[in-house]
Amino acid sequence: MAEDAFVISASMIPFGKYRSSSYVGLAVSPLIDALQRAGVQKSDVDAVYVGHSYGGMMTGQRITKEIGLGTVPTVNVDNACSSGATAVHEAATAIAQGLIDVAVVIGVEKLTQFGGGTLPLSPEDREVRQGIVMPAVYAMRATRYLYENDATVEDLALVSVKARRHGALNPFAQFRKEVTVEEVLAARPVADPLTLLMCCPTGDGAAVVVLASERARNRLGAGKSARVAASVLHSGQVAEGYRDMTKPEITYQSVRDAYAEAGIEPWDLDMIEFHDAFSIAELVYYEAFGLTEKQSAVSLLRDGRTTFGGDVVVNPSGGLLAKGHPVGASGVAQVAEAFWQVTGQAGARQIPDARWAATHVTGGGTAGLDHGACTVHIFEAA
Asked: Which residue, 21, 7, 29, 1, is CA-closest to 207?
């Protein structure tokens, strides 16, 4: 029988631009803080998993050596935007299989090293060689979605407005200023119909969570925690030619399996952290998560059913649109938010009586694939 895994502490730095810092400099502070909050000594740690995409060789070892955390297995995970979430999945799986008792998961990225612009993609990909970039992919998705649905560009702006309103409550968010629909629509065009404020900002950041088995949690005297009720990782299925850009099958499949593993339904969730790299993504993922039928997502948004006081709070952290998206750190930061919410530690953005939380992140724009990877977690207050 599988062991239960629990998130017992979390820490992160505010996402932003740390041009003079290094990967090590970004990650050491939240690493020390997460260990201290969990009451975990270095000798308690059985494994370290580190999610990053652009950190280079041995990023995890370079971080852990700074605090003298050696000898234990340190695994570096690159799964594009899903890197940090995949690292959490690997840690939770090892605990569930009884292989380890305590795991530290670090997500870290420094995107200011590229000086701005869109993220570099693999030149081996045929679509990349022809000039594809991620804003263009999501712009095409948005164009198709607006064509097929009773949705407008103003609805895309509403997603950003909600994200910034939530982010204004989050001390870790890169952007903490509310915006209006008019400001979003008037922002600089990026890829029609997307404006700058409909796109997540690049930046730097690091987040750390500590996971433990039930026996380790009891031994350490950990307080409130978040049980990992489901941890699902899927890779994309190759499909050449036409595909429905408004129905990301990798997310549909991952969510289906996560609900089954956790034994819950969509309406049980109190919060979800979506991979909202662009505003259109949130509308598409409402449907993928079963919050509404296909072609009816905008009604949830317009009626305020996905914000505080609604049916389920989507991206209480501000999501990638407000919090920022330092690629390898994002999935771990989502888990940190879920942990804080279900343990009542989310401060001004606390969801009353939050019990069930989900996190979702996809990774990799690759020709022939919907996405390269998708990781979905479901957590229960414990």
From this structure: 29
CATH of the domain at 292: 3.40.47.10
Give CA separation, 235 vs 209, 356, 369, 377, in Å. Answer: 24, 25, 9, 15
Angle at 331 (CA atoms; ends 7, 125), nearest 5 degrees:
145
CA distances from 308 to 56, 223, 354 (A): 40, 26, 11
Structural domain of 364: 126-199+230-381
CA-nearest of 232, 197, 349, 362 to 285 is: 362
Query: Which residues are part of the catalytic machinery?
Result: 81
**Radius of gyration (Cα) for the chain, nearest Å?**
19
C-alpha of 85 from chain center: 7
119 in any annotated domain: no
Helix (H, G, I), strand (E, B) or coil at 361: strand
Return d(Cα 356, Cα 268) in angstroms, integer.
7
108 neighbors 355 (Cβ within 8 angstroms): no
Condensed to tens digits (0 to 9), the pLDDT of residues 38-54 reads: 999 999 999 999 999 99
Maximum separation of any 2 CA atoms in the chain, in Å: 57
- Residue 360, judged by CB atoms within 10 A of its CB (0-12, 13-18, 19+), counts as buried
Q: Taking a C-beta distance cutoff of 8 angstroms, is the pair 277, 331 a contact?
A: no
Q: What percent of the chain shows pLDDT beyond 70? A: 96
pLDDT in tens, 69-117: 989 999 999 999 999 999 999 999 999 999 999 999 999 999 999 888 7
The DSSP bridge partners found for residue 7 are 211, 226
With respect to residue 120, please indicate whether it lies within any of the assigned structural domains: no
Amino acid letter for position 230: A
